[in-house]
């Protein structure tokens, strides 16, 4: 199946990991925190401990707002590495989404796509954190679906159902929507199960969302390593980030 942007009227994006480069910031925070407590652990081990905790906690209902997800993750990682829970550091970790940077290609890629289609965000985040990220992206989405809005987290389906309904209200049917994400677990697999065409941005060196429940089943219709590559594949004209 060759994906062409002309076959779609809307594209929906996962945000964190796909457009916002959060992993280095998470590793740096947890690495510095562990070091202050005399724990020497590889960054990958800290990141995967966070990912396991995040996947479990996001299944809890009623759903927690994302800052509270981060607090609970911090507490679990603290226990896993036998570090006493430091409330001040836990609160600093809960606020880190406001500082996570955008990938260098995100803004130009999003604007290139928005010139030809509506662009939506389906994000496992709270509204305030996403607002900060949109400032870093320098971009306004046409449709925004957050975990705070739907009271659930992907790979559960409320994000997708709500996004489909929002675009239907704009006259765009579900078969004209393309979903794009970095997470196999939270984006590609549920899109597969819902029958939505999807593209996987497999960012080099990034790990979150590539393992865990359902990840091995993921079958993207297109795999690229950057948003610039995605735009080129969909339109035949690469987005220039220089």
Automatic annotation (TrEMBL):
InterPro entries hit by this protein: HAD-like_sf (IPR036412), HAD_sf (IPR023214), S-2-haloacid_dehalogenase (IPR051540)
Q: Which of UniProt's keywords are assigned here?
A: Hydrolase
Q: Which organism is it from?
A: Phreatobacter stygius
Q: Does the keyword Hydrolase apply?
A: yes
PANTHER family cross-referenced by the UniProt entry:
ACID DEHALOGENASE, PUTATIVE (AFU_ORTHOLOGUE AFUA_6G14460)-RELATED (PTHR43316:SF9), HYDROLASE, HALOACID DELAHOGENASE-RELATED (PTHR43316)
- Identify the domain of life: Bacteria
- Listed Pfam families: Hydrolase
Recorded hits in Gene3D superfamilies, A to Z, give: 1.10.150.750, HAD superfamily/HAD-like
Tell me the protein's name.
Haloacid dehalogenase
Which Gene Ontology molecular-function terms are recorded? Answer: hydrolase activity
């Amino acid at each position: 199946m060759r994906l062409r942007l002309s076959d779609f009227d809307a594209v929906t994006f996962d945000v964190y990991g796909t457009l916002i480069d959060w992993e280095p910031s998470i590793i740096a925070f947890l690495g510095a925190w562990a070091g202050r407590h005399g724990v020497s652990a590889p960054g990958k081990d800290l990141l995967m401990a966070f990912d396991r905790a995040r996947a479990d906690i996001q299944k809890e209902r009623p759903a927690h707002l994302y800052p509270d997800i981060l607090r609970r993750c911090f507490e679990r990682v603290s226990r896993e590495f036998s570090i006493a829970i430091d409330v001040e550091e836990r609160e600093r970790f809960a606020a880190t989404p406001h500082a996570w940077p955008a990938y260098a290609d995100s803004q130009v890629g999003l604007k290139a796509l928005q010139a030809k289609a509506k662009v939506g965000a389906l994000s496992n985040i709270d509204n305030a954190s996403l607002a900060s990220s949109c400032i870093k992206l320098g971009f306004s989405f046409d449709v925004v679906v957050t975990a705070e809005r739907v009271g659930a987290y992907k790979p559960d389906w409320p994000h997708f159902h709500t996004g489909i309904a929002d675009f239907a209200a704009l006259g765009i049917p579900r078969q004209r929507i393309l979903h794009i994400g970095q997470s196999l677990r939270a984006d590609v697999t549920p899109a597969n199960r819902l029958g939505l065409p999807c593209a996987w941005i497999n960012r080099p060196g990034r790990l979150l969302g590539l393992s865990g429940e359902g990840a091995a089943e993921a079958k993207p219709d297109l795999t690229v390593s950057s948003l610039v590559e995605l735009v080129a594949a969909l339109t035949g004209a690469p987005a220039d980030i220089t």
